[in-house]
């Protein structure tokens, strides 16, 4: 508490109008705080502070702070506000996020000058109708509460530009309008919703998607026909479904209302599994059809896929009896997926035994889907759907779709997401290329794709095809649309183009094994590193084929097969193999640029994994310990990276290997794969066996004494610090001025000194000074890259007595909220000032504790091309700048000098 009181006293003494008391472990507010009546900004909480405050009560004395404009109470334990807070008439922003509010604080409604209200991550279930009183409100954050409805009064907040509603169980506004993340501003679309509702009304939706999945020849098409017409006579050889067939099934919802189910019948061949993730949607009913004779249904695979992409959508399992064969479902499966399985039904589609019971359950399950009879859709939107359904062309452009909606792009996308979920049409709006096409005829598009993948000639050529093949395969498709269909396949990651010559490869049709195994001797052997992805619950199909498509430009010597590939990335060889039934992707890398190659590979695998991930992470990275799990097979023993990161966060130096029982260095294990071993070699050479100098205090102390022009010290990254001249004034001249004024009795001398002192401290508070500090770091990094590389040490001030001294980064960390936040800010600065690609030139980022202070060391590699940074301005004021190192200084080059240098250097 003494720290808090010291800060308060300092604020009173210096007449501060800004006070930050976050992260100090405060339980209650001292009365002294309310004596600082000049305060305009008071921060009592922030996200992710090292030591959280736990304030539960805001005293009524808060009313004394009548000049307050910003009040931040984030991440405390507050459940109510005092009535007296309504006296803060100048308040423009109040942040109440991450607290214990169950009821919306009515006191806020009297703060009529309020412009920003943040009250997300609470437990508020009702938003008061009086919200329209806040006519100056421009931003309202309500995400992650328990709100069930939004009052019409939201539409009366005419100045409101930003509204955040994600994470609320709101029923009176379409779910898709609430945003996909907490960062989504849904203000325009919600306002338009209320406006359209007022003009045209709304209606309940009695339509849903019924998705039939299962292995090939399980009886999915037969079931689709039987549900719609029980008297349908099964054909001896039902034609194989190529892609997906969509049928409409209409039945009575009640005496007055009809229900429409859009039946999606999926082809079950393995080759088709890769696209299922594009069609499996939430708020649907799934039917898993099983041929009880075949004994080939992978229940865990199908149910995991449904659970993953269907969220909490229900699933019915149909055991299709053929020739009196029967089957029981294992209890382990029923137990594992009990939350989504509605029931298991034996049905004989040949004689309709069990069909009536199944049909009744399917209808009832469709009627019970959460959105049926509870969520409404605007009549205007329903008319848009009817216009699209009536169209005969297979697809239209998004531009033509917008002409039908007569809405802006964002609102049109929201509607298309809803109609895509309902199965009205297909719109892959998250794909930058496919988002320009609305596919009205689902079967038309998917059948075209699978006509290629199931073609005999393409299969015999192990997935290779040309446009000449497509002319034959797609003879019934208009020539003008074939480029679009190929693009659909490429963007589904089903094929890739070979060197822009209109020849394509579909990796799913590759040979089972590599045609030439000699690469094992020519590409691998010494100084290899290993890496592994392990899929915790299940592994989606098609990971390796999608990776081949994404990284096809790196394929080495056509070394690709159905379950593996060899890439050559710069000066490194990478072998990637898939063990589907072990749920593993195994990687090994050799060569002189292993780390960069592995970084590129990991990035692309993570992108593929993330395209599957909905609620939880699917795959986890594993790092080898270096010992052998089995010396005969020479396979390394792996440790989960997540475990190593936990050890690192807990400052644990070693971890015991469960195979060799050795104590292994945590940082070394991470660096061996994630880092750059060339840097470790430099360390060993430069420090003569002082291993891991990156965390060696002596190394930093030695750097401070050196005059190496490849080392630069910065006191801070964010917080402005005193310049050398200002320090000299405060340390030398200011005391002399005071002494002079006392001796001579001249008040003007003292007044001038005090004025200059105040100017120095005021200067440190400005945003401009922060920009100067940031740019100083940016230009140093650029200078290193344009020269011979170097090390930037942040947290050491080189201006005290003209020699470096340890300043520490505590002020930076306190200001921004910890190391993760600071590193995120750093990455944003790099992206905005230099560009994303520059990150590859930063070899190492180390946090080092020296004399109990935090130091950050960044090591920059020399670049192979010139690197520019911008000055941080916008518009016409922005300009590019080029820096280099000269001796121990960073200098900007322009005009002829710049041209000459770049010619000689690059």
Describe the structure.
- A hairpin with a 2-residue loop joins β22 (555-561) and β23 (564-569).
- α16 packs across α17 (594-612) and α18 crosses α19.
- The strands form eleven sheets. Strands 1-2-3-4-5-6-7 form a seven-stranded parallel sheet, covered by helices on one side. Strands 22-23-24-25-21-26-27 form a seven-stranded antiparallel sheet.
- The longest helix has 21 residues, at 724-744.
- The chain contains 27 helices and 39 strands.
- With 906 residues, the chain is an alpha/beta fold.
- Residues 629-633 and 676-695 have low confidence and may be disordered.
- Helix content is 33%, strand content 21%.
Sequence stretches where pLDDT stays below 50 over 5 or more residues: 629-633, 676-695
Query: Strand content of the residues, in percent?
Result: 15-25%
Order of adjacent strands in the largest pleated sheet: 1-2-3-4-5-6-7
- Amount of helix: 25-40%
Structural class: alpha/beta
Can you tell me the overall shape? globular
Straight-line distance between termini: 58 Å
Which value, in Å, is the CA radius of gyration? 33 Å
SSE topology:
Blueprint: H1 2-13, E1 18-20, E2 41-43, E3 70-72, E4 93-95, E5 116-118, E6 139-141, E7 162-164, H2 187-200, E8 202-204, E9 207-213, H3 220-228, E10 244-252, E11 258-266, H4 276-279, E12 284-291, H5 299-309, E13 315-320, H6 331-336, E14 341-347, H7 355-367, E15 376-378, H8 379-390, E16 395-397, H9 398-405, H10 409-422, E17 437-439, H11 442-453, H12 456-460, E18 464-466, H13 467-473, H14 482-491, E19 496-497, E20 503-505, H15 519-522, E21 529-535, H16 543-550, E22 555-561, E23 564-569, E24 572-579, E25 584-591, H17 594-612, E26 619-630, E27 635-640, H18 641-649, E28 654-656, E29 663-665, H19 666-673, H20 677-687, H21 697-705, E30 711-714, H22 724-744, H23 747-765, H24 767-786, E31 790-794, E32 796-800, E33 803-806, H25 810-816, H26 819-833, E34 842-850, E35 853-860, E36 869-870, E37 880-881, E38 883-886, E39 889-892, H27 895-905
């Amino acid at each position: 508490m003494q720290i808090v009181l010291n800060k308060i006293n300092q604020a009173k003494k210096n007449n501060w109008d800004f006070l930050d008391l976050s992260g100090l472990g405060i339980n209650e507010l001292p009365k002294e705080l309310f004596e600082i009546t000049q305060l305009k900004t008071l921060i009592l909480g922030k996200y992710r502070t090292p030591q959280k405050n736990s304030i539960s009560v805001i005293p009524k004395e808060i009313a004394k702070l009548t000049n307050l404009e910003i009040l931040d109470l984030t991440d405390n334990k507050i459940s109510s506000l005092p009535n007296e807070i309504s006296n803060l008439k100048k308040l423009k922003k109040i942040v109440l996020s991450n607290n214990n509010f169950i009821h919306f604080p009515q006191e806020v409604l009297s703060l009529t000058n309020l412009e920003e209200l943040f009250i997300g991550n609470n437990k508020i279930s009702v938003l008061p109708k009086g919200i329209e009183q806040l006519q100056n409100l421009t931003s309202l954050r309500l995400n992650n509460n328990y709100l069930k409805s939004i009052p019409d009064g939201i539409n009366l907040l005419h100045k409101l530009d930003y509204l955040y509603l994600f994470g609320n169980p709101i029923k009176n506004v379409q779910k898709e309008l609430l945003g996909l993340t907490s960062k989504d501003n849904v203000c325009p679309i919600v306002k338009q919703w209320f406006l359209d509702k007022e003009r045209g009304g709304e209606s309940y939706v009695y339509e849903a998607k019924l998705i039939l999945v299962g292995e090939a020849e399980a009886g999915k098409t037969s079931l689709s026909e039987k549900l719609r017409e029980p008297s349908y006579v099964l054909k001896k050889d039902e034609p194989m479904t190529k892609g997906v067939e969509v049928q409409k099934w209409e039945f009575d919802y009640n005496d007055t209302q009809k229900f429409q189910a859009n039946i999606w019948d999926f082809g079950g061949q393995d080759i088709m599994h890769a696209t299922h993730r594009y069609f499996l949607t939430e708020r649907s009913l799934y039917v898993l059809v099983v041929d009880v004779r075949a004994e080939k249904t992978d229940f865990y695979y199908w149910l995991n896929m449904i659970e993953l992409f269907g969220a909490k959508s229900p699933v019915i399992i149909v055991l299709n009896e053929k020739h009196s064969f029967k089957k029981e479902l294992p209890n382990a499966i029923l137990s594992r997926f009990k939350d989504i399985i509605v029931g298991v039904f034996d049905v004989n589609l040949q004689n309709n035994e069990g069909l009536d019971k199944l049909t009744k359950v399917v209808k009832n399950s469709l009627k019970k889907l959460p959105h049926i009879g509870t969520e409404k859709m605007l009549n205007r939107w329903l008319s848009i759907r009817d216009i699209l359904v009536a169209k005969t062309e297979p697809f239209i452009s998004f531009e033509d779709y917008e002409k039908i909606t007569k809405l802006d792009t964002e609102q049109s996308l929201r509607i298309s997401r809803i109609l895509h979920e309902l199965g009205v049409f297909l719109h892959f709006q998250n794909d930058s290329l496919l988002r320009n096409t609305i596919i009205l005829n689902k079967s038309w598009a998917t059948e075209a794709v699978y006509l290629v993948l199931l073609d005999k000639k393409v299969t015999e050529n192990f997935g290779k095809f040309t446009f000449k093949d497509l002319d034959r395969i797609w003879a019934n498709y208009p020539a003008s649309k074939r480029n679009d269909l190929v693009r659909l396949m490429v963007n589904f990651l089903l094929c890739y183009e070979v060197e822009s010559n209109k020849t394509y490869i579909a990796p799913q049709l590759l040979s089972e094994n590599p045609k030439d195994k000699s690469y094992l001797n020519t590409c691998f052997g010494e100084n290899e590193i290993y890496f592994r992805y392990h899929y915790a619950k299940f592994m989606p199909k098609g990971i390796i084929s999608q990776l081949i498509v994404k990284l096809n430009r790196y394929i080495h010597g056509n070394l690709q097969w159905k379950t593996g590939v060899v890439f050559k990335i710069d000066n490194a060889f990478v072998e990637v193999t898939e063990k589907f039934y072990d749920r593993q992707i195994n990687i090994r890398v050799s060569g002189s640029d292993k780390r960069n190659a592995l970084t590129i590979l990991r990035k692309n695998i993570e992108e593929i994994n993330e395209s599957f991930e909905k609620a939880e992470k699917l795959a986890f990275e594993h790092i080898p310990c270096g010992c052998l799990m089995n010396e005969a097979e020479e396979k390394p023993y792996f440790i989960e990276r997540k475990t190593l990161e936990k050890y690192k966060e807990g400052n644990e130096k070693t971890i015991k290997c469960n195979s060799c029982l050795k104590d292994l260095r945590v940082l070394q294990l991470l660096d061996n794969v994630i880092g750059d071993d060339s840097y470790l070699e430099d360390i060993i050479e430069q420090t003569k066996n002082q291993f891991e100098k990156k965390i060696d205090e002596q190394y930093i102390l030695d750097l401070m004494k050196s005059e190496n022009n490849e080392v630069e010290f910065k006191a801070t990254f964010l917080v402005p610090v005193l310049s050398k001249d200002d320090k000299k004034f405060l340390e030398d001249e200011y005391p002399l001025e005071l002494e002079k004024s006392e001796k001579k009795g001249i008040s003007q001398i003292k007044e001038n000194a005090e004025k200059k002192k105040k100017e120095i401290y005021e200067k440190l508070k400005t945003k401009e000074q922060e920009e100067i500090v940031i740019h100083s770091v940016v230009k140093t990094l650029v200078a290193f890259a344009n020269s011979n590389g170097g090390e930037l040490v942040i947290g050491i001030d080189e201006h005290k007595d003209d020699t470096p001294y340890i300043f520490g980064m505590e002020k930076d960390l306190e200001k921004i909220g910890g190391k993760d936040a600071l590193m995120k800010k750093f990455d944003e600065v790099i992206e905005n000032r230099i560009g994303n690609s520059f990150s590859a030139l930063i070899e190492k980022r180390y946090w080092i504790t020296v004399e109990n202070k935090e130091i950050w060391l960044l090591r920059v590699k020399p670049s192979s091309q010139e690197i520019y940074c911008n000055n941080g301005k916008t518009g016409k004021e922005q300009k590019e700048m080029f820096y280099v190192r000269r001796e121990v200084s960073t200098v900007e080059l322009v005009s002829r000098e710049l041209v000459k240098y770049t010619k000689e250097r690059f």
